């Protein structure tokens, strides 16, 4: 008998209800910011869901929001090489989610930034509560993470406007752009999950794999990782992050 999967990292809760797996980011005191440990726990959980041939993979966040994105709390103590690797591992996670045979559902709420917004964008179904807000400021410190994926989702011109101005957009704008599919409050999410699970169960994992491969751009993954590596590895990433964070305080 296969035992239920358990994350060894307390920053990620994994609930396996049959073929529906729920991954809950569990760092509410850090607004679910993506530490290196949390990213690795997410990668391991996605791999386990794949191996278990889960039908549906749900991403959600504990506390006030889904995710505040990259965890900058200790970046000064990391080498530039360490920081580059952390960004690469986030892109690795995003590509795993983009390519998984599982159906994916993001349930978002609260203030969400950067790589946290990328985690929402990569899911094939995206639902948010009315209080949700989104912002992707990575290009302000020279990081091209999620840019191509956002463009593919909402269109190049719309993505350009959002990213060039590092704009905050609310659920009304997100729904208009197609970034989210619907606005549903958390008390309605159980019905959303039930419907998503029913839809996911209509196809087996092999059929879902064919569907995802034939409705996506195979060159996107290589472009995304190349842009991320070039941008993150350009000399001075720590100084760029420091200047960005200082400007955000002023």
TrEMBL record:
Name of a matching Pfam family: ECH_1
Any one Gene Ontology molecular-function term assigned to this protein's record: catalytic activity
Similarity section: Belongs to the enoyl-CoA hydratase/isomerase family.
Record-given protein name: Enoyl-CoA hydratase
Organism of origin: Alcaligenes pakistanensis
Lineage: Bacteria, Pseudomonadati, Pseudomonadota, Betaproteobacteria, Burkholderiales
């Amino acid at each position: 008998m296969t035992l239920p999967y358990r994350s060894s990292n307390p920053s990620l809760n994994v609930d396996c209800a049959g073929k529906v797996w729920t991954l809950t980011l569990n760092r509410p005191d850090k607004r679910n910011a993506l530490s290196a440990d949390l990213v690795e726990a997410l990668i391991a959980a996605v791999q386990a869901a794949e191996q278990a041939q889960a039908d549906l993979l749900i991403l959600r966040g504990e506390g006030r929001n889904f995710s505040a994105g990259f965890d900058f709390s200790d970046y000064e103590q990391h080498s530039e090489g360490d920081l580059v690797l952390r960004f690469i591992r986030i892109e690795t996670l995003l590509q795993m989610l983009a390519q998984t045979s599982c159906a994916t559902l993001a349930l978002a709420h609260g203030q969400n930034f950067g790589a946290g917004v990328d985690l929402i964008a990569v899911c094939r179904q995206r639902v948010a509560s009315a209080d949700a807000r989104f912002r992707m400021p990575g290009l302000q410190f020279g990081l091209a993470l999620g840019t191509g994926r956002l463009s593919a989702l909402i269109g190049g011109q719309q993505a350009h406007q959002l990213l060039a101005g590092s704009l905050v957009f609310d659920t009304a704008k997100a729904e208009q752009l197609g970034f989210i599919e619907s606005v549903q409050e958390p008390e309605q999410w159980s019905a959303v999950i039930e419907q998503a699970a029913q839809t996911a169960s209509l196809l087996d994992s092999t059929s879902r794999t064919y569907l995802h491969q034939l409705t996506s751009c195979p060159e996107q993954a290589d472009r995304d990782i190349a842009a991320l590596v070039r941008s993150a590895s350009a000399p001075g990433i720590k100084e760029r992050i420091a200047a960005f964070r200082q400007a955000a305080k002023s």
